[in-house]
Amino acid sequence: MNSLAGRSNQGAQNMKRHSGLALIGTLCCSLLFSAGASASGIAQLRAFVADTKSASADFAQTVESRSGRRPQLSSGSFLFERPGKFRWTYQKPYAQLIVGDGEKLWIYDQDLNQVTVKKLGQALGESPAALLAGDNVMEKNFVLKDQGSKDGLEWVEATPKAKEGSFEWVRLGFKDQLPRVMQVKDSFGQTTTLHFSAFERNPKLNPGLFRFVPPKGADVVGE
């Protein structure tokens, strides 16, 4: 692929893509929050699943490796709409767009001019993002456990029942009826922490935001 030739930062790009895919596997968990501040983490999680049809927020992300390397920092925004649609935009340090249109998962690396496409079900499996299907069966696929209060937040931990997944657990922190923090430990031993801001529940979203057409001249890899 001509757009990939001579790229000395391919390793960094691959790490970025892995991080993006891991986050898509946890995207829905970032949307499963709210209810009263006095409620437990599990109660807030269940209430948000029941009451939230769409959402939007900004995020700041930190990825820490098991080896203790310098953390990777990034930031951006996301949109979500049931059933099975989302738009996850990384703005810094690299431009990357991840779109779920209900059937396929599209990952566009702007600096590489490369698009990766996968079937949504195949890409996500029994991950938290499977909740995007809209059937609210989170406790069919996850074991939920209240983690109590810490740093002014109410915490809940979701552990996948499937052992072959891409992550070990997701921890969610809530305050004042809003999601504040999400932590994910993946199967590579990395811990990803996201801090949310400007969170909005049930905004009216343009359907076109969840459609993706590969840019002219882009390399398209996958299905």
UniProtKB/TrEMBL annotation:
Primary localization: periplasm
Pfam families: LolA (PF03548)
Annotated family: Belongs to the LolA family.
Subunit-structure text: Monomer.
Coiled coil: none
Entries under NCBIfam families matching the protein: lolA, PRK00031.1-3
A GO CC term attached to the entry: periplasmic space
Record's signal peptide: none
Lineage: unclassified sequences, metagenomes, ecological metagenomes
SUPFAM superfamilies reported in the protein's UniProt record: Prokaryotic lipoproteins and lipoprotein localization factors
UniProtKB keywords: Chaperone, Lipoprotein, Periplasm, Protein transport, Transport
Protein name, as recorded: Outer-membrane lipoprotein carrier protein
